[in-house]
Amino acid sequence: MTTSAPVLTSAAARVTDAVKVYGSGDTEVRALDGITVGFPAARFTAIMGPSGSGKSTLMHCAAGLDTLTSGAAYIGDTELGALDDRRLTLLRRDRVGFVFQAFNLLPTLTVAENITLPLDLAGERGDPEWIDALIDVVGLRDRLHHRPSELSGGQQQRVAVARAFAGSPDVVFADEPTGNLDSRSGQEVLGLLGRTVRETGRTVVMVTHDPVAAAHADEVVFLADGRLVDRMTAPSAERVLDRMKDLDPGGGHRP
Ligand SMILES: Nc1ncnc2c1ncn2[C@@H]1O[C@H](COP(=O)(O)OP(=O)(O)OP(=O)(O)O)[C@@H](O)[C@H]1O
Asked: Rounded to an integer, what distance in angstroms lies between the CA atom of residue 254 and that of residue 112?
């Protein structure tokens, strides 16, 4: 069992000795209890663990959506704790992409407008060739002028995936991206995330409860009680499920 992973210099994102404490005194919770983990560039990494093990907290702190109590979080070589609010906002905008369980598309905008919205808000044009290629990767070429309400859930999440990658971020963080999808649409979105990583050399870090979803990743990192307890390369759903049974014999995580 590996309790600390070597920190690769090629990590797109990483945390070192990460501690996150919520509350104080009797209500204190150590959501992260000294985690060191790197998310390698050009790889698809899944974060798994029982409910309450710290998956979302790790993702939020690694992505600059929340701050650590102690330790450090880096995107590339940039330490997030060293940035003031303005520079942190710019880093989140320019170097990080997000995909959430709720697709968070703007209903009045077309698919094309939703994909380029973050760039438009930033007053940037982006790389038109990259965005054009992305539209093919996510398979939305014939839906560009539709509104989100005219799309299936899976198609909407594909728009959200394209939007997350549109600005060529260093890393895309996905929090339960298939949580609102039926299994076939979920498989499509997971296949898409994997394909985007393989075909374009981008980096994805995904939090999931689902061993089948985790099996799409190149590597799975396992958390328990706010600690990193294992890593698994070339995962299969069966091996991930077995590992999860050891970590969470009661199966206390949500389905
Ligand atoms: N804002 C908060 N205030 C207080 N405690 C929190 C807060 N956010 C998370 N926690 C606690 O921190 C611990 C880790 O929570 P976290 O959401 O990171 O776990 P998780 O593995 O993502 O769980 P789940 O799989 O249920 O989403 C839990 O005990 C949780 O109750």
From this structure: 34
Sequence ranges of the domains in the chain? 11-247
* 8 A C-beta contact, residue 77 and residue 105: no
Residues 7-43: pLDDT tens digits?
444 899 999 999 999 999 999 999 999 999 999 999 9
Q: Which amino acid is at 44?
A: F
Contact status, residue 217 vs residue 206, Cβ threshold 8 Å: yes
From ligand 1's centre to the CA of 23, what distance in Å? 12
Select from 20, 53, 175 the residue to mutate for testing ligand 1; criterion: most ligand atoms less than 8 Å from CB: 53
ipTM of the complex: 0.97
Lowest mean pLDDT among 116-125, 127-136, 243-252: 243-252
Q: Name the CATH architecture for the domain at 11-247.
A: 3-Layer(aba) Sandwich (3.40)
51 Cβ inside 6 Å of ligand 1: yes
Atom of ligand 1 nearest to the CA of 49: 21
- Nearest of 114, 109, 166, 110 to residue 137 by alpha carbon: 166
Mark residue 157 as left, alpha or beta (left: phi above 0; alpha: psi -120 to 50; beta: remaining): alpha
Q: pTM of the predicted model, to two decimals?
A: 0.91
